[in-house]
Specification:
Helix content is 23%, strand content 27%. It is elongated, with a radius of gyration of 19 Å. The strands form 2 sheets. The protein has a 5-stranded antiparallel sheet, with helices on one face. It has 156 residues and is α+β, with helices and mostly antiparallel strands. Strand 3 and strand 4 form a beta hairpin.
Length: 156
């Protein structure tokens, strides 16, 4: 009886271990871009999210700000004072300058998603989609491109 129970426990542990891939193993050799962009500010306009793409740059004349507070947290301040915060993880693929999101991987996780106005809801919904990130740190430009087709429709 003990042998059967031990066998079942070992078998179930093996089955579960094969289904889960630890996050660290999913990170490519180049590591994360997070260390290079921490403590930087990027500017954008939420109203310009079009064709499932959002452009960020160093133009402080734009109304909205994305601040990579540290190597894992971000803070977004919209022109009306609304703040969104959460965590991020962007792969550093070196010369390619592209982060391609694996299936079911989320580049951004937004903490505050309730009681937001239309603009903030649109941005939070966009950031939580499957995103590919194209970046040029020397030119200080970054594009977030959604893999999802169709318009950005917040869930109720």
């Amino acid at each position: 009886m003990k042998t059967i129970i031990i066998f079942l426990i070992l078998f179930s542990n093996c089955a579960f271990a094969q289904q889960q891939i630890p996050v660290k193993e999913a990170i490519p050799k180049g590591g994360l871009l997070n260390q290079k962009i921490k403590q930087t500010k990027w500017y954008f306009n939420t109203d310009e999210i079009s064709d499932n793409k959002l452009d960020l740059n160093s133009n402080a004349a734009q109304p909205d700000i994305l601040d990579f507070v540290d190597a894992s947290k971000f803070l977004i301040t919209l022109r009306d004072g609304t703040k969104l915060s959460g965590t991020y993880q962007i792969f550093d693929l070196g010369d390619m300058g592209t982060h391609t999101a694996p299936k079911n991987y989320k580049t951004f996780k937004v903490n505050k998603t309730q009681n937001l106005d239309r603009r903030a809801t649109k941005l939070a919904t966009f950031l939580q989609q499957d995103l590919n990130v194209h970046y040029d740190l020397e030119q200080k430009t970054m594009d977030f491109i959604s893999n999802d087709n169709g318009p950005i429709v917040p869930s109720s």
